[in-house]
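hey
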């Protein structure tokens, strides 16, 4: 039996949270061995995270709407996740006319007008909206009361618990800038906005 094909479309594999999520999701689905995975970039091919894409994951570039719709139609994915994909704006109906996947998801990284513009005027039946926090889910549902509450899910940012874990007993923390004994130090790089749920 052939494993289902999941296509994740994003703008680039360059620097940024949405781009990192694209690669992390693709790698996790691929490593599960339950899916075949293909990435489509729309704004630019390659990028900082391109080297982190696991071997065996297909990658293609579709620089305009015609190429984008044609690429999805040729791949015939079982699942399609549009991850902050601006090129998909305004052509969801064309995508679905060319090929209707069993799963269609829109991953929004907030509820600003930039993010909300990525949703079609009417969410296709059975489609799902993924977002990054409870705050973002609340904002999306307030701005789009036509979307069923059950169609919006939170896919929170994760922490690699193998890399970032409590110290072993007797192990001293290494904190180069801060005073020893000051406790754990956490870093954050990104926008300070409500949907990030800092």
């Amino acid at each position: 039996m052939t494993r289902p094909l999941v296509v994740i479309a994003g703008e680039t594999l360059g620097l940024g949270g949405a781009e990192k999520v694209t690669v992390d999701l693709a790698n996790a689905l691929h490593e599960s061995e339950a899916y075949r995975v293909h990435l489509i970039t729309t704004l630019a091919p390659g990028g900082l995270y391109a080297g982190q894409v696991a071997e065996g994951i297909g990658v293609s570039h579709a620089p305009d709407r015609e190429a984008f719709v044609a690429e999805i139609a040729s791949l015939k994915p079982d699942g399609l996740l549009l991850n902050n994909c601006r090129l998909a704006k305004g052509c969801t109906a064309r995508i679905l006319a060319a090929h209707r996947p069993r799963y269609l998801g829109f991953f929004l990284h907030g509820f600003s007008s930039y993010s909300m513009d990525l949703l079609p005027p009417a969410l296709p039946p059975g489609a799902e909206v993924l977002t990054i926090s409870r705050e973002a889910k609340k904002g999306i549902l307030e701005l789009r009361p036509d979307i069923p509450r059950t169609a919006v899910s939170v896919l929170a940012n994760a922490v690699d618990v193998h890399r970032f874990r409590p110290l072993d007993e007797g192990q001293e923390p290494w904190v180069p800038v801060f005073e020893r004994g000051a406790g754990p130090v956490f870093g954050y790089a990104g926008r300070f906005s409500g949907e990030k749920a800092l």
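The mean pLDDT is 89. The radius of gyration is 19 Å.
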